[in-house]
Design goal:
The protein is an alpha+beta fold. The protein is built from 16 helices and 31 strands.
Length: 736
C-alpha cells in the first residue's frame, strides 16, 4: 500500500485495535543483546583476512598535498599499502545527500582533515606507519579564515521580514536587545565511526555505523564509482549518532578503496580524536535577539539574527531561527542568518540543529523581558500564543504548549519560586528556579517497510531503518503487533540492511513516525487481504491474540485463513499535509539549580519536562528520549564547548577527557510528563517526532534558573564557574 499523505487520516485506527501494546512502556527487544555484549557493531564483524586501516590527518588548515613519502612506511612491518586518492572524501556527507560529498583529499580544507590511509596486517602496525608517514604540503593557511567574521559573512538564506520592525521597537513599552553566544558542539557518540569493506567481484558490502542507509548506499556508490545496486550496507546496531552518522564519511570510502585495491576486507575505525577533528561540528553562534512588547507583555516586535560558520561551498547553515518563526506572536519581525566561511571541520547536523541553540537563546531573552515587566515568565509566554504562524497566516496542526506549561508548572511547584534573584540561600549555595518553552519542527519523510504475517501467525517487520539507540526495534514491532493482533513476543523486527525496503533513517526525529507509518500501511494492506477472506470490510475486522473475527462472528485463529506467508509493503510519502499546516512538537522545562556563592559552581537539583508530540508509541522509549535531550541541554548550558587554537585552527579538546559532557553525577532528579494527543496531519499513526524535542530550550531554562539564584545574567554559553565567579554578588551579603 502506497500513500502520498495529502489528507489527514482522521480514523485514528490505532485507538480502535485491541491488542493493547501500542503506547505501552515495553522494553527494547535488542536490549539484552546490547547489555550482554552480543549485539554486533560495525567494527566487530569477523571477516577472514581482514586488514586494518588508519587514517592520517593534515597538518595545515588549508592548502595542497604535494608529496607523500610512501616508500619509508611501505618497508615497515606488516604494511600493505598507503592510499591517497581523488575518490577519498575531503568532507563527510550531510544527511540526505544521496551523492558523494566533496572528494579529492589532495585539497586540504581544515586542520586534521584525513588525507591518507595506511593499511597493514594489524591495527598496531597500521598505527605505527600512520604516525611515521611524512606528507609535503603547499601551505595556504590564512589565520583570517580560522575565526568567524561578521564583516566577511554572507546571507545563509533570505531573511524573514514582516511589518515595520524598527518602528515597532521604537513604539514598544518595553524592549530587550541582547546578544548571546554559543560555542561549537560535538556529537560525541559512544561508538566511533567505523567500517569494514569487502568486495565480491564488482559488488561491495560495507558494515558501517550509519543513520540513513538508503541515502548512504547512494553516497558510497557515487564515491567509489559503482552503481547503487552493487552496494550493500549493513548497520543493524549503531552506538549513537546525533547527526554525525547521517551521511557517508571518510572511513567508509577509504576502507572501500583499499579493499578493492588489496582484494581483501579492510577495517577502518576512526580514533576518538579523529572523530572530533573531522566529523561534523555544530556551528558556534552569535545571536542578537530584540523583543518589543506593549505594557501587558504582548509582543509587537521580534527580531532574531544570528552569525554562524561553515566551510566554503557547504550548503548547510545552522537554522538558528527555525522555531522563532512560529513560536510566539510579534507581527513586526526580522529573522536572519549570516554565514562566515572559515577553515574548520564541516559544520552540520548535531542533535536538533537550529532549535538546540536558537531556542536556548530565545528563551533566555524572553526571561529577560519577563524581568523587565515584573511578569511571571510562564504568563509572558501564555500571553504570546499566536493563533496562526505570524507573517504567514498558516494554521497549526496542533499546539500543546499551554498545556505543557501548565502541567510542568503544576508538577514542578513553580508557584514556590520567588520572582527576585538572590532570595534563597542554603549554606554557601544560592538556589533558583527557571523555565523555558520547548519547540521542534515535525517532519514526515518518505519511507518503506515490509510486514509478513507468517503461516504460523507470527510477524516479521523489515526495513533498512536504523536504530541508533532510540527504540526503532521496539516501536516498529509494537505498531505491527497492534495492527495485526499478535502478542509482541511473536513479532520479529529486522533493521539496518540496505537489501530491505528503504526506511526514513534515523535523523530529524522523523524515524518512528515515518517508517512507523510505512509499517502501519503494510499492516493495513494485510488486513485488507484478510477482510476479503472473511467477506467483511477492513473496518469491521477485529484481531487480538492471534485470533481474527468480525462483528457477529466467533473468533478463530488467523492461521486458518493463511495458505502460507502473507507479505505486504507499505510506503508513505509526504504530501500536502506538510504544506497546509505548521507541524511542530512543544513542551516546557522547569528546573532548580544551586550556585555556589564562593566558587561559581552550578549544580542541577531537579528538572521537569512536559512534552506534547502526538501519539506516544512507546512510553518508555519516549521518556528516555526526553531525558536524553534534557541531559544534552544541561551539557549545553554548563559544560559543552569546542575549543580551537586561534593560531592554526586545530581542535584542542578532541576527546572525552577534555570535551566535557554530563555524567551521572551531574544529572539531578528528572521528571518527564508525556502529554498524549492525536495529530492526524502529522502522520497516519497520529505521531510526531520526539527524539530532539527534549533539548530545544532546555539550556535556556538553566540559564534563567542561574539568574534567579544569584542575579548573574551570563550571555555566553556554557555558563562555567569562571564566568559566574567574576559576576557573583558578595557571598557574605545578607539575603533581603
Amino acid at each position: 500500500m502506497s500513500v502520498t499523505y495529502d489528507r489527514p487520516d482522521q480514523r485514528n485506527l490505532l485507538d480502535q485495535t485491541r491488542q493493547g501494546v501500542i503506547g505501552q512502556p515495553l522494553d527494547r527487544p535488542e536490549g539484552p543483546l546490547k547489555v550482554a555484549g552480543q549485539a554486533t557493531y560495525a567494527a566487530e564483524y569477523r571477516r577472514p583476512a581482514c586488514a586494518e586501516g588508519v587514517l592520517v590527518g593534515a597538518r595545515i588548515s588549508k592548502g595542497l598535498v604535494t608529496g607523500i613519502h610512501r616508500d619509508a612506511v611501505l618497508s615497515m612491518p606488516g604494511v600493505l599499502g598507503v592510499y591517497s586518492t581523488h575518490e577519498m572524501l575531503r568532507r563527510a556527507a550531510q544527511g540526505g545527500a544521496g551523492e558523494a560529498p566533496m572528494q579529492d583529499v589532495h585539497h586540504v580544507d581544515f586542520p586534521d582533515q584525513p588525507v591518507a590511509l595506511v593499511v597493514a596486517e594489524t591495527f598496531e602496525q597500521a598505527t605505527a606507519a600512520a604516525k611515521a608517514l611524512r606528507i609535503d604540503y603547499d601551505d595556504q593557511s590564512d589565520t583570517a579564515r580560522l575565526l568567524p567574521s561578521a564583516e566577511a559573512a554572507e546571507p545563509a538564506k533570505e531573511p524573514v521580514e514582516a511589518g515595520d520592525l524598527e518602528a515597532a521597537l521604537k513604539e514598544a513599552a518595553h524592549v530587550v536587545d541582547v546578544t548571546y553566544t554559543t560555542p561549537g558542539h560535538a556529537s560525541a557518540a559512544m561508538e566511533p565511526h567505523a567500517a569494514i569493506a569487502e568486495w565480491d567481484g564488482g559488488k561491495l558490502t560495507l558494515h558501517g555505523s550509519l543513520q540513513m542507509v538508503a541515502f548512504n548506499v547512494k553516497e558510497l556508490a557515487d564515491s567509489v564509482g559503482v552503481d547503487a545496486e552493487d552496494v550493500r550496507i549493513v548497520s543493524p546496531y549503531v552506538g549513537g549518532g546525533f547527526g554525525s552518522k547521517l551521511g557517508i564519511s571518510h572511513e567508509a570510502v577509504a576502507a572501500s578503496i583499499a579493499a578493492r585495491e588489496l582484494g581483501r576486507p579492510v577495517r577502518v575505525v576512526m580514533s576518538r580524536q579523529q572523530v572530533f577533528e573531522a566529523i561534523m561540528r555544530r556551528s558556534e553562534t552569535e545571536q542578537r535577539v530584540r523583543l518589543g512588547c506593549d505594557d501587558q507583555g504582548r509582543l509587537t516586535a521580534l527580531a532574531h539574527e544570528a552569525l554562524i560558520s561553515n566551510l566554503p561551498e557547504e550548503e548547510f547553515a545552522e537554522p538558528v531561527t527555525q522555531a522563532t518563526e512560529f513560536l510566539y506572536r510579534g507581527d513586526n519581525r526580522r529573522l536572519a542568518i549570516q554565514i562566515s566561511r572559515i577553515n574548520r571541520l564541516t559544520a552540520g547536523s548535531v542533535r536538533a540543529p537550529g532549535e538546540a541553540v536558537g531556542m536556548q537563546v530565545l528563551e533566555a531573552a524572553m526571561d529577560e523581558l519577563a524581568v523587565k515587566l515584573h511578569l511571571d515568565p510562564v504568563e509572558l509566554r501564555k500571553r504570546n500564543m499566536p493563533d496562526v504562524v505570524p507573517g504567514e497566516g498558516t494554521p497549526y496542526s496542533s499546539r500543546r504548549l499551554v498545556e505543557a506549561l501548565d502541567a510542568g508548572a503544576r508538577s514542578f511547584g513553580w508557584n514556590q519560586r520567588h520572582p527576585l534573584p538572590c532570595q534563597r540561600r542554603e549554606g554557601e549555595w544560592w538556589i533558583g528556579m527557571g523555565m523555558a518553552s520547548a519547540a521542534r519542527v515535525n517532519i514526515l519523510k518518505q519511507a518503506e517497510a515490509r510486514v509478513t504475517l507468517r503461516a504460523d501467525g507470527s510477524l516479521l517487520v523489515e526495513s533498512d531503518q536504523t536504530d541508533i539507540g532510540t527504540g526503532s526495534y521496539a516501536i516498529l514491532g509494537q505498531i505491527a503487533a497492534e495492527m495485526l493482533g499478535q502478542p509482541i513476543e511473536r513479532t520479529e523486527v529486522r533493521l539496518g540492511d540496505s537489501t530491505l525496503p528503504s526506511g526514513a533513517g534515523s535523523g530529524g526525529s522523523w524515524g518512528a513516525s515515518s517508517t512507523g507509518s510505512a509499517v502501519f500501511l503494510a499492516c493495513e494492506a494485510i488486513r485488507a487481504v484478510l477482510a476479503r477472506k472473511m467477506n467483511c470490510s477492513p473496518d469491521d475486522l477485529l484481531m487480538q491474540d492471534g485470533k481474527i473475527w468480525a462483528e457477529g462472528t466467533d473468533p478463530r485463529p488467523v492461521t486458518e485463513l493463511l495458505e502460507g506467508d502473507l507479505a505486504q509493503v507499505g510506503r508513505i510519502e509526504p504530501g500536502e499535509t506538510s504544506e497546509k499546516v505548521k507541524q511542530a512538537t512543544y513542551g516546557a522545562f522547569f528546573c532548580e539549580v544551586a550556585v555556589n556563592a564562593f566558587t561559581g559552581e552550578t549544580r542541577m537539583r531537579r528538572m521537569t519536562g512536559a512534552f506534547g508530540f502526538g501519539r506516544v508509541l512507546n512510553a518508555k522509549t519516549a521518556r528516555s528520549q526526553c531525558l536524553g535531550g534534557m541531559v544534552w541541554g544541561i551539557g549545553s548550558a554548563l559544560m559543552e564547548e569546542l575549543h580551537f587554537d586561534h593560531r592554526d585552527g586545530h581542535l584542542v579538546n578532541h576527546d572525552l577527557a577534555e570535551y566535557h559532557v554530563p555524567v551521572h553525577r551531574d544529572i539531578p532528579e528528572m521528571e518527564v510528563i508525556l502529554l498524549e494527543e492525536r495529530d492526524a496531519y502529522a502522520s497516519p499513526i497520529q505521531a510526531k517526532g520526539v527524539g530532539e524535542l527534549g533539548i530545544c530550550g532546555a539550556a535556556g531554562a538553566i540559564s534563567n534558573a542561574i539568574y534567579n539564584a544569584c542575579g548573574v545574567r551570563l550571555r555566553d554559553f556554557p555558563m562555567t564557574p569562571d564566568k559566574l565567579l567574576a559576576e557573583l554578588p558578595d557571598p557574605f551579603a545578607r539575603v533581603t
